[in-house]
Design brief:
Shape: globular
Number of strands: 18
Number of helices: 9
Largest sheet: 9 strands, antiparallel
Structural class: alpha+beta
Distance between the termini: 43 Å
Bound molecules: adenosine monophosphate, magnesium ion
Strand content: 15-25%
Helix content: 25-40%
Length: about 350
């Protein structure tokens, strides 16, 4: 593992332990199967299955992990043999054919770029790298370096051919980064696999992004998901009181934020989410939680709203059916919600 990958991993682990510390009620019914936390996709994942019998529950959990591993093998940007890595190395020289699943994620990413006016942009890779390198060297990037990276960023430079299922770059040195959407996609695939395996209900948690469906664990009415208070330093078990508890049934939830996941250059924090307009870490919002039917949408929208900020972000989410946002601004300690978000709030 290179030094850079190691850093990436360290940041990710920190994020899981802090930023997106979500949990659900721990009571389990007789046939509920809980995987506990396992390392996958560079983060911690936990699957809970509710099934008519333990064997079906266990098979559902296994089917879900199989999907998470498959998606990681295709879309990881630090596995040199993943399709994403091959695209990143070769797509400027020639069009690269990719699996239908990879193509689907790339297509969805571009749709979100268009919907958000470029706030969400998977071509952000060169800027992500620049800030990683700057953090390692502990010097802010120069104007020239920023301009050079910027020239390799922009979804208009990404050519997707749906007939051929190919990807091509218009500019040398481009790099796709699916960190803002692949987890969501993997969660959806895992949940689908659980339903196929016979689960009556389930919860898939990958690094704090979650999808739950069907019967809740412990025979409860809903799955209970706690949102961590960004202003409270968590202990190592994440056992501090959540700021908000959400009651979910068939929903996905994703949280993005910069409050503990950032790179430090000198004294200044740079968020891992980059605003391609300013070519710098986005610092508008502390924590953005999106509730949506599918995890891929919740994931992409949480990243998008982190860049868009409160006003534009809220109006975007208000315009999307069955989708809600809960924003927390750290300095002001203020929680802002879309109009339909209250129906998911549970009394603690
Ligand atoms: P998330 O935690 O889902 O908000 O994803 C954050 C990750 O998405 C970052 O660590 C980068 O890998 C990637 N990323 C950073 N900036 C953007 C952006 N503007 N659009 C899409 N992905 C981004
Ligand atoms: Mg995201």
């Amino acid at each position: 593992m290179s030094k850079k990958n190691y850093n990436y991993l360290a940041i990710t682990i920190l994020a899981v332990l802090t930023l997106a510390w979500l949990h659900f009620a721990d009571e389990k019914g007789p046939s509920d199967v809980d995987s506990g936390y396992r390392m996958v996709m560079g983060t911690f994942a936990r699957i809970v299955a509710v099934a008519a019998d333990r064997q079906t529950g266990q098979e559902s959990v296994d089917a879900a992990f199989t999907q998470l591993v498959l998606v990681d093998e295709l879309m990881s940007d630090y596995k040199p043999d993943s399709q994403l890595s091959i695209v990143n190395r070769q797509a400027y020289e020639k069009a690269i054919k990719v699996d239908a699943s990879v193509f689907e994620v790339l297509k969805k990413s571009v749709e979100y770029s268009k919907l958000t006016g470029g706030a969400f942009d998977i071509t952000v890779g060169p800027l992500v790298d620049l800030y990683h390198d700057a953090a390692e060297a502990n010097t802010v990037p120069t104007e020239k370096q920023i301009e050079q990276a910027r020239a390799k960023v922009g979804y208009d430079k990404l050519i997707l051919d749906a007939n051929e299922s190919t990807v091509r770059f218009l500019v040398a040195g481009m790099r796709l980064d699916l960190g803002g959407i692949a987890k969501g996609y993997a969660i959806d695939k895992a949940a689908e696999a659980m339903i196929e395996a016979g689960a009556l209900g389930g919860m898939v948690d990958v690094g704090g992004d979650i999808r739950c469906f069907g019967n809740a664990a412990g025979g409860k009415e809903s799955w209970l998901i706690g949102l961590q208070d960004p202003n409270v330093e968590p202990d190592e078990f994440g056992s501090e009181e959540p700021i908000i508890v959400l009651k979910l049934n068939d929903n996905a939830i994703a949280t993005s934020g910069d409050y503990r996941r950032f790179v430090l250059i000198g004294e200044k924090k740079f968020s891992h989410i980059i605003d391609t307009q300013t070519a710098s870490g986005s610092d508008r919002l502390t924590s953005v939680t999106i509730i949506a039917p599918q995890a891929i949408d919740a994931d992409a929208l949480a990243t998008s709203v982190s860049v868009l900020g409160t006003a534009k972000g809220l109006s975007l989410i208000e315009s999307i059916a069955d989708t809600e946002a809960i924003l927390i601004r750290q300095k002001e300690g203020e929680t802002i919600k879309t109009t339909g978000a209250d129906k998911y709030l549970s009394q603690k």
